[in-house]
Amino acid sequence: MKKLVLVKYAAEIFLKGLNKNKFEKKLMNNMKKSLVGLDFEFIIDQGRCFIYSEDLDELVNRLKKVFGIAEVCIVTEIETDMENIKLEALKALNESGAKTFKVETNRANKNFSISSMEINRTVGSYILDNSEGFSVDVRTPECRINIEIRGKTYIYSKRIKGIGGMPYGTNGKTLLMLSGGIDSPVAGYMMARRGVDLRCVYYHSHPYTSERAKEKVKELARILKGYTGDITLYIVPFTDIQMDIMDKCREDELTIIMRRFMMRVACKIADKYGIQSVATGESIGQVASQTMEGLVVSDDVADRPAFRPLIAFDKIDIMDTARKIGTYETSILPYEDCCTIFVAKHPKTRPVLSEIIKSESVMEIDRLVDEAVEGMEILREEL
Ligand code: ATP
Ligand code: MG
């Protein structure tokens, strides 16, 4: 009798038709990667993925962070034999603490001569005859006892919800503008959860933003890495650009022009590394720069899609997600970011594109962008 888990894939993976194998293979690789350092063994049995490890708790904890998993079930593997099955089913029910139950059998092994329906009935009657206080409820049972008859038999009733989404690395790449705030890590998580390969860029305004602010962003990247398996962080020196904007542009246009530079630099880096899109943590109406007009004016300099997965989320919901994924506590550390230092008292909330283009025309835009990209630091292994 061996304890292991059965991994159930997110339903969307099964909608992929001929591509299903590709997604499944990726998911398997991602699971294996997430289990590095743990003793484990994969048992693939007719499309079902079982994983065995001595350290069941750690196995489950790791799998809870893998995108594309709908459910992890704690399974007992036994020899295929009716007496064993009955005993084990009763044990599973006793352990569940439930009062009502239902037996569900799946017989993949047709050499086993008893039909699924008959197994359900036999096991159900056995439980009722050999215990007290349980009753059958086929509609809404507190405990579903699943019996899978294969070479061996697998019995489970305990299910742990996975994080769902699509296997990481199956849906292209994006470059996330990662600040030290609450929103952008959540935006990155949401893109990654849909299978999008995530790279991050942080604009650092040394010495106006401290080393601690940078460390905080590195820590956020590390937390995201817990879900993605690996992460790259580009740290771009942003002080020269900001100084030049302060020097040459109107105070109320500082923010929008700065945002356009962030967009330009991100697109340039994305282009350099074959990343098809960029992403930010912006949400419509959240702050003065995140108006429809502001977003349109910053998008104007993007040469590829700029995704904003939080666009229609309330702050309170974003904060909930941040707590759930484990970034919140780091995000609220009080270290300043570049935007809080170079902030206008009354930023334009309705910038007009032609006016902004005119204001920027006194700047050497290409040179500033090129220098920022050339000066960037790339972190990967050290995260
Ligand atoms: P966040 O909580 O993600 O910092 P925010 O509500 O504070 O967002 P802004 O400061 O206006 O909003 O930034 C909007 C978006 O711009 C951020 O979500 C992030 O994607 C990007 N961004 C802002 N500052 C930086 C930075 N220093 N480095 C990288 N990206 C940044
Ligand atoms: Mg911010």
Structure overview:
The protein is of the alpha/beta class. The chain is 40% helix and 22% strand. It is built from 14 helices and 14 strands. It folds into two domains: 2-161, 2-Layer Sandwich (VC0802-like); 173-379, Rossmann fold (3-Layer(aba) Sandwich). Strands 2-3-1-4-8-7-5-6 form an eight-stranded mixed sheet. The chain has a six-stranded mixed sheet with strand order 13-12-9-10-11-14, with helices on both faces. Adenosine-5'-triphosphate (ATP) binds at residues 177-179, 181-184, 201-203, 280-282, 286-287, 289, 337-339.
If classified by CATH, what would the architecture of the largest domain be? 3-Layer(aba) Sandwich
Across the major sheet, the strand order is 2-3-1-4-8-7-5-6
> What order do the SSEs take from the amino end to the carboxyl end, as H and E?
EHEEHEHEHEEEEHEHEHHEHEHHHHHE
- Taking the alpha carbons of the first and last residues, their distance comes to 40 Å
Number of domains: 2
C-alpha Rg, in Å? 27 Å
CATH superfamily caption of the largest domain? HUPs
Question: Into which percent range does the helicity of residues fall?
Answer: 40-55%
Task: Report the strand count.
Answer: 14
Q: What molecules are bound to this protein?
A: adenosine-5'-triphosphate, magnesium ion
Mean pLDDT: 94
Shape: elongated
Question: Quick one: CATH class of the largest domain?
Answer: Alpha Beta
The poorly predicted ranges are none
Beta-strand content bin: 15-25%
Computed structural class = alpha/beta
Q: Per CATH, what is the topology of the largest domain?
A: Rossmann fold
* Sheet of most strands: 8 strands, mixed
Number of helices: 14
